[in-house]
Amino acid sequence: MSGFGIHRLLYRLLPSRASLDYCKHCIATGDVAAAMPALRAKSAAGHAEAAYLLGQLYAEGKLIPKNTTEALRLYLRAAEKGSPEAADQLGSWYLFGAAQADDPMQAAGLQTAANLDKANPLAALFDQQGVHQDYQQAAYWNQQAVKQGMVPAKSRLGLQYALGLGVKKSLEHAIALLKPAAEAGDELALVASGIYYLGGFGGTADPLAARQWLDAAPPSPSGLANVLWALTYISGDPTQWQPQQAFDLLLPAAKQGNAAAMYYIGDLIAAGHISPPNMTAELWMRRAAAKGHVRAIAALVRMLTSSTASNASPLEAASLCRQAADNGDGEAMFLLAHLYLQGTGLQKSDIFAFKWAQKSSQAQFSAGTELLAWMHAKGVGTPADAASALKLLDSIAEKLSPDGLRLKQQLLSPPQP
Questions:
Q1: Nearest CA to 211 among 169, 181, 242?
Q2: Of 127 and 12, which is predicted with more confidence?
Q3: Rounded to the nearest 5 degrees, what angle is found at the Cα of 295, between the Cα atoms of 210 and 341?
């Protein structure tokens, strides 16, 4: 074969500078500059995979300057042209925000067990570098990615159904998505399935099933796995609890700086379940509160305002309570309303008490709704309005306390002549 013939053969065998294979080869070898002209041209022409690859380069910012806004534009272009990888990425970005953490569990907003009972555990995560959370968009793109067989999208969509984020809450839909993803080994699905069976999404707790999924999840640097594993020992039937086993798991996580672990240790000590030497419930609650753990702050407020506390500090309690209330915690809002009603640690004000009771109710904290109903019924901080009080009590009928039930009965009883 002549030299000319060999060159022609090699030319046919080697990838063209305009081909996607050539672009991938350049990216793999770090020569992005050689790939960019073809990637840009193909992306502009509507080539889905080229747009996705270009978006990846901008998103990662390793070989070219990071530009999340440009990456989002390219991912949208690719996804609209049918790229399953782009749809999957969009589902993740719109759910968690663009700036993802190294630890996928932290990125999922599950870094503290306190998130198990918050209305919106994915709020206020990371710096949103050009992509703000949008749960409706997340649901749409996760659904598109699921249809194209992307396992991580199943985990995210399952989490959305479990929490009611961008979709109507449905535990049935949630586990139907989470289970196959967990069986495929997806880390988020394994942990979310564990939370599901802990009853963290509002279902019936099944500690044994929870342990099965959590045991299969890889360890998390944040100590999350230890905390969730510990919760399997203190969930469900209290007669079956094993507090010491829970403590043995929580302590290493607390030493790693996990605020939820600190909170649960404090809670176990406060309830008298464990009595570790040289440890107090207040000590652990303070440590967790210092990290912004809202349930620890609420617990500490109760400790500091208790009539039996030897170190009561109403001013500190009011300051802590306002901090957690401003961060959107329903229980802290409820406690702050009580502090205003009693004039504990701040100036007594029925008007401010009513305001914070309203906020607590809006945050779906049932005790806050009950307090708001009482204020409507008694005309405290607002004109008396029995109809509004009854409407509020009916909205939490299954969660009413004995005091709430008595108030409802009083409102329903005809006035005595």
A1: 242
A2: 12
A3: 140
